[in-house]
Design goal:
This protein is 13% helix and 21% strand. It is an alpha+beta fold and 625 residues long. The protein is elongated and about 160 Å long.
Length: 625
């Protein structure tokens, strides 16, 4: 590659390298190197990052040798012999004279109360030991990344108001469940690269000429890699796979999977030291600080570790990243998803109490859903629904809750899949009311009673009405309209988390939705025809009993009978009743005298009927025969 033709600048007097130390004039020039560090990669795009350190490392990249020729403006000389090969692909690593105090670094890496994964600060063998002496290097000269990364729980947001509503507080607490703050020391660039001391006198002479600017170390750019190591200690091992599924061959020796990769912007530089800084023993003009990054929405019940890679930000920077630091393994705690909505058997409540649940249904609605309310219910019922962070949603169901369904399809041998689960669309009911019921005592209250905090078996009941319409070929599923008879007869239910978009982006996805419930019936088909009343004589029963029969659907689980009193019998006067009893006693006495063996009480029809009732209908009294 031929460089541009330039005029030779004024020569610089440099001392020669030799025993005599004679000085000689040297000419110099500045050349822009060819940035050929971009190499083709064989990796293709995928759901997970596949290149933790970027392109493949190659020491031949940015390796140059130089030749020079001179001329008088009319002709050129021959090219000189090439110089020694010089590699400009410089990687950041802790140099021998790193201007970082071991004690100061150990002080920065001290754990706090929120720390879940502590760093291992360097330990100097003596007070004069440098930072590089506390590290380990490979035979090839590569630095073994030290454990200087600290992982701590993310703090609660400081942007909450003084008296925040329940929704903001709940969202802020859910955001930090799987959030972690990763911190590592942001050392000065002089800790990773310094001029060669053997060439220091040459730089000084070039700086005096005014043609060479002062030396400024290149800035360090960081990359944070998050590795999925294994399942939690109390969970099933990650290597227990279904039969026929082979474990992948990971590039890392530990078997970890590169789960997430964050390239930090090139603004994470060390802050300049102030004039009032007391600790100014180094002349680098920079102070070492801690650099942090927040990891949000990590999968729960998993073990992770972090590594930090770095490279210099220069015009001829390499495209691969050098491992710089690492952390120990830490576990993301288990997060339980919301349970599916639980329908309640409100038919077990007394009729007057059951009518309290249906008095506030949506206008024109024929369907009704009653589920247990598992969320916060402190305060008035209307305020509880407005401040709740979860809401009930429903979707059309093609299945039936009964095990005896003539419209059911044959068994699917392939089993359940993600595509076969309820897909929606999910909508909310038009009207939702909150009640408080006690199924043991059969009570229903519109507001939470005081005894509910002391007595057992009080349950918050959510009543949803105004269900979406059945989807037809001409209209989409919409909300309920007045006098609409075509509400969905069977639905699936689920809970949905209500929060802002910026909160949902960091809240664990497992909390966004609950599992969908099985098919739930929204209304019951009324009995067909009028109930038939009749008198029957059951088998092996010597009595006649009344019976009522009606025609209803086969899924009936509860029934209730209602009757209306058409006419009350008039009460007889006391005199007339006394006279009747006297005549009855007289006739019974005459009958007893005539028979000679039966008593008056046995011959009385009333007594016979009473005896028949006491005997349970097992026999017939002789007097009534």
């Amino acid at each position: 590659v031929l460089g541009p033709v330039r005029r030779t600048s004024a020569p610089v007097l440099l001392s020669a390298e030799g025993a005599d130390g004679q000085a000689a004039l040297h000419a110099f020039d500045f050349s822009n190197l060819l940035d050929d560090s971009i190499m083709p990669s064989t990796h293709e795009g995928g759901p997970l990052p596949q290149e933790p350190t970027g392109a493949m490392r190659d020491d031949a990249v940015l390796a140059y040798e130089f030749s020079v020729r001179v001329g008088d403006g009319f002709r050129w000389s021959e090219w000189s012999k090439p110089s020694e090969v010089t590699n400009f692909a410089v990687e950041p690593k802790i140099v021998e004279d790193a201007p970082v105090s071991v004690d100061d670094l150990a002080e920065m890496l001290k754990p706090t109360e929120a720390t879940v994964c502590e760093a291992r600060p360097p330990r100097a063998e003596s007070q004069t030991a440098s930072l590089s002496q506390s590290l380990q290097y490979s035979p090839d000269g590569d630095m073994d990344p030290p454990t200087w990364i600290t992982v701590a729980r993310a703090p609660l947001s400081d942007e909450l108001p003084v008296d925040p509503p329940f929704g903001l507080t709940d969202a802020a607490e859910n955001c930090i469940i799987t959030q972690f703050e990763v911190s590592w020391p942001n050392l000065t660039p002089l800790a990773y690269i310094q001029p060669d001391k053997s060439q220091a006198h040459i730089f000084e002479e070039l700086l005096k000429s005014g043609f060479l600017p002062a030396y400024v170390p290149p800035c360090v750019v960081y990359r944070l890699n998050v590795w999925l190591v294994a399942n939690a200690a109390d969970a099933a091992p990650i290597d227990k796979l279904p039969e026929g599924v082979a474990a992948p061959e990971y590039e890392s020796t530990s078997g970890a999977v590169l789960y997430r990769q964050i390239d930090l912007p090139p603004t994470a530089f060390s802050e300049p030291r102030g004039e009032d800084d007391e600790d100014d023993e180094f002349e680098d003009g920079f102070a070492s600080k801690m650099l942090s990054h927040t990891l949000s929405a990590l999968p729960p019940d998993r073990v992770f570790c972090c590594t930090v890679e770095a490279r210099f930000q220069t015009h001829t920077s390499v495209e691969w990243w050098t491992p710089l630091m690492r952390s120990d393994e830490f576990t993301v705690e288990r997060v339980a998803p919301p349970a599916a909505p639980e329908p309640l058997p409100v038919c077990e409540l007394p009729t007057p109490e059951h009518q309290k649940l249906t008095v506030r249904t949506a206008l024109g609605s024929s369907g009704l859903l009653t589920v247990r309310w598992p969320w916060n219910c402190e305060g008035h019922a209307a305020e509880v629904l407005r401040k709740a962070t979860y809401t009930l949603e429903l979707s059309r169901s093609t299945s039936r809750p009964s095990l005896h369904d003539p419209t059911a399809t044959p068994l699917h041998v392939s089993g359940e899949t993600a595509a076969g689960r309820p897909q929606g669309p999910w909508v909310e009911a038009t009207s939702m009311q909150l009640y408080f019921a006690n199924f043991e005592t059969g009570q229903v209250a519109h507001e939470m009673p005081l005894q509910a905090q002391a007595e057992r078996n009080w349950i918050a009941v959510l009543v949803a009405s105004g269900l979406p319409l059945e989807q037809t070929s001409n209209q989409e599923t919409s909300s309920l309209s007045v006098d609409s008879p075509n509400e969905l007869p069977f639905v699936h239910l689920r809970w949905r988390y209500k929060a802002r978009a910026e909160d949902l982006a960091v809240i664990p996805p497992i909390l966004h939705f609950s599992a969908a419930s099985g098919p739930v019936r929204t209304r019951v088909v009324s009995p067909v025809g009028v109930p038939q009343w009749s008198l029957t004589c059951p088998t092996r029963a010597h009595r006649i009993v009344p019976s009522i029969s009606w025609t209803a659907w086969s899924g009936t689980a509860y029934h209730q009978l209602a009757f209306r009193v058409m006419q009350r019998s008039k009460k007889k006067s006391r005199r007339r009743s006394s006279a009747s009893r006297a005549r009855l006693a007289s006739s019974a006495s005459d009958l007893s005298v005539a028979s000679g063996s039966d008593t008056g009480s046995d011959a009385s029809p009333t007594a016979a009927s009473a005896r028949h009732q006491r005997s349970g209908g097992r026999g017939t009294p002789s007097g009534a025969r």
